[in-house]
Each structure stands twice: as C-alpha cells, then as structure tokens.
Amino acid sequence: MRLLLVEDEVEIQGFVKQSLIDAGWEVQAVDDATSALQEVTKQTFDGLIVDLGLPDLDGIDLLLRLRRSGISAPVLILSARRSVDERVKGLELGGDDYLTKPFAAVELVARMRSLLRRSSRGEESSHLRIDDLELDAVKRRATQNGHLLNLTPQEFLLLEYLCRNAGRVVTRSMLLAEVWGMQFQPDTNMVDVHVYRLRGKIDPEGAESRIKTLRGVGYVFQRK
Ligand code: CA
Fold first, then answer.
1. Cα-flanking dihedrals φ and ψ of residue 173, to 5°?
2. Angle at 110 between CA 53 and CA 175, to 5 degrees
C-alpha cells in the first residue's frame, strides 16, 4: 500500500511519515499542493493524508482538484481547525475522515487502516438501502423515506456500520475500532451517547428503536 502525505510542517511531516512507515506502508511525503498534484500523475496511491493549511493552496482546494481529476483514493484530512464548518466542508468535498491536531500516532494509523479497508471493499458497496433508510457512503448522506437526515459525520459512520452489519451483533469495541478508529477501549460512554442521539434521529417518535441494546455486549440493528 502506497500513501501520499501532504504536510508542510517539517516536524509533523516527519512524525506522521514515520508512524505510517512503522505501520507497514510505503510513504511519499510532499510539502505543498503543487507537488501533490504532480505526484498523483506519476504514481498511484492507495490513500492520501492531506493537511488543510498548505502554503500554496488550501487543502480543501487541493481535495477538490484531486477529486475532479478522478482520484478516488480515500483521503484523511489533517487540520488544526476545530470548527465544525471546516470539518463538514472537508468531508463534503471529498475527504473521508478528519483528524484534528494534535493527534496520537496510534489514532492516525487506526483511522488510515479503517479507510483503506473500507475503500478496498469497492465501489459497489457505496450505496446502502435498508427498509426506509438509504445511505451514500461516498457523499456521506443518509435519507429516510427520501428526507435527508441531519447527521454528524460520526453519526453517519455509526449508522453506516450498523446498517452494513444489520441483524448481526456489533460490540462496543467493534464500533470504537471501525467508527472512531480506536484500538483500545477508553473509559467513556461515547458509543452509547452517539447511539442514543442516532436513535433520536432515525426512530419514529414513540416507536421501539431499531437499534437494540444487548446489555453488556453491544447493539444489533434490526431490519423491519
Ligand atoms: Ca500546515
């Protein structure tokens, strides 16, 4: 697997590059968008890691140009920008995941691994339909009975994972690994809180939830 890293800060570039190499990937690192656009014409990359604050072009514009030129490899966005708007914009314009600086090497590697795994499953699985729900994994849009659901990026990923595994038990650690890219079980109720919010958005008022809790185990998404 070959990855392209676009990051202008020397220290971060070195740290990220080494972390990815240690994880077993081949890494090409460049400092700006112009070099990135040149690199992608020379070789094929399985995944990209793009910093938003680049010296020559905004990372968002780079992302847009990459997608327009037909590069479909998954992109992990790196940014110091914490605003939700920037995050959403980045994801809408073709980023596949988002990591805010500072981050731990282990999280970077886990997210990248998850992105690569998802993209290797192929195009045919980008559209999902379960009962009244329809998901577009590329655009990260979910609709219910044709109405757009207002989901956060994490809620979308959670719903996507639950739907892909509909009828099967998914544990909290599976969700943490696949949705949040965490290989360890932090001492939080993050998963439960997100499931609770997701239920509020997809379950009709007063109806029994389709996301069943299996106490001490995890969840099952039940088809109607
Ligand atoms: Ca930067």
1. -70, -30
2. 115
Two tokens, residue 129:
């339909």
pLDDT in tens, 139-166: 889 999 989 999 998 899 999 999 988 8
Distance 73 CA to ligand 1 centre (A): 21
Cβ atoms 50, 75 nearer than 8 A: yes
Domains of the chain, earliest start first: 2-121 (3.40.50.2300), 125-221 (1.10.10.10)
Q: What angle do CA 146, 142, 118 make, to 5 degrees?
A: 145
How far away, in angstroms, is 38 Cα from ligand 1 center? 19
Q: Is the pTM of this model over 0.85?
A: no
Q: Is the dihedral of CA 57, 118, 28, 21 positive or negative?
A: positive
CA of 64 to the centre of ligand 1 (A): 17
